[in-house]
Amino acid sequence: MRGGERLSRNGYSHRRAVERDEDRPATFSSLSVPETTTPGGSPGLQQACGGRDGVAVMEEARIRRSSRVAVVAVVAGAAGLAVTLLVDFVRTPITTVLCAVAILVGLFGMIDRRIKLRISAEGLRYEDWGPSTIPWQEFSGYRWATWRGQPYLQLLPRRPTELVAGFSRVGKLNYHSGQWLRIPAFSISANPLDITTARLEALAARNLPELPAS
How far apart are CA 196 and CA 188, in angstroms? Predict the structure, then answer.
């Protein structure tokens, strides 16, 4: 078909521009689909009935960074900095730097209102991995994992090596640093995001089966 080809999954259809992708390697980034947005909509999951062929369409869920976590970082950093300056035995360069970094990171989080995670019927786009939408077909399912007592939604890729190869440079750095810290691979935590753990699971469960924990 001129200008594109039809792809379908579970009754959903979309168009992929093949002319500009002819010379690209066949990675998940080349399978990315255009974003679908809800005019005037708020972040979150919505169901739009009356779509193509009368099928209910899952609109894109947009999740931002949690401002609550940013506020906690600023307060904790400021309190630590005050203690560092007032108490002689904890007044060291490293503690001062750590408190200042916490304040700066918290302030940045309060200002940064960019979308961190996008979930739609076609796939997901997680900014910590890269700017491309990863189709659901790249994953066999999801499961829950824990790290330092915190729950993580872990996605199980069918081709882990190829998936990491398609990450951005920052995404690869995040992946390898997470592996060094023993954070579950290909996982997403709801804590730094403006979403609850239950809602994050509900979004994943609409598109992937839950698999037993390892």
Answer: 12
